[in-house]
Amino acid sequence: MFDTAETLAATFGHYADNPQRIESFYKFRYDLFVQTLGWKLDVTGNREIDQFDHDYAEYCVVSENDSIIAGFRAIRSDHNYLAAEIFPHLATTKPYPRRADVWEISRFGIAPHLASTDLAKINYSLMMRFAQHRNATALVALADLVYERYLRTLSISTRRYGPPQVIGTDRSGRKLRCVAGEIPLLDQAPGKLESLIGYTEQMELEDATLVLGRRAISA
Hints:
By secondary structure, the protein is α+β, with helices and mostly antiparallel strands. It has a single domain, classed as 3-Layer(aba) Sandwich (Aminopeptidase). The protein has five helices and twelve strands. Strands 1, 4, 5, 6, 7, 8, 9, 10, 11 and 12 form a ten-stranded mixed sheet that branches. A hairpin with a 2-residue loop joins strand 2 and strand 3. The longest helix is centred in the N-terminal third of the chain and has 18 residues. It is globular. The two termini are about 25 Å apart.
């Protein structure tokens, strides 16, 4: 188990920038979402991969000693993205965006054995750092209500596109209830995003897509 964010490393990039690392992330997603959580998702062997793992998708992969423990996928909303294509019916009060300055975050996850640690906060901090360097004005997501409440504990405000709905069941028959919405980055209370971003200030970051400049840094 890690002690602080400084013991971890995060990599941003497309599949083509680091195929081996992203393949490992697909395996991590399979272990987490399919094997552990029981979601009914497309799999190829021991990899969870879908039609949105396309050339425009970017990834954040968080590791400790080369073992992947967290991460997420990011897709600019003027490209095809999961929420808008698969769950259009969830946007009943506000349409999904199709803009270059708005990104969807999906496949956001952390290793189950680290659920009681600050790893979720670290993953959210990295998500905000990614958004900052992409000059994003909002982040779109399908969110479990638990994560929506967690963001409130971090004083990060969200905006729903409609009420929560059941989007399916897991292998045990438990209903999966989610809400579609966004984090409006320009509408956050002063200092809240900066505080969250600062949580990973000393973490080692590497960006292969020039988000941070094709170099490893302690940002």
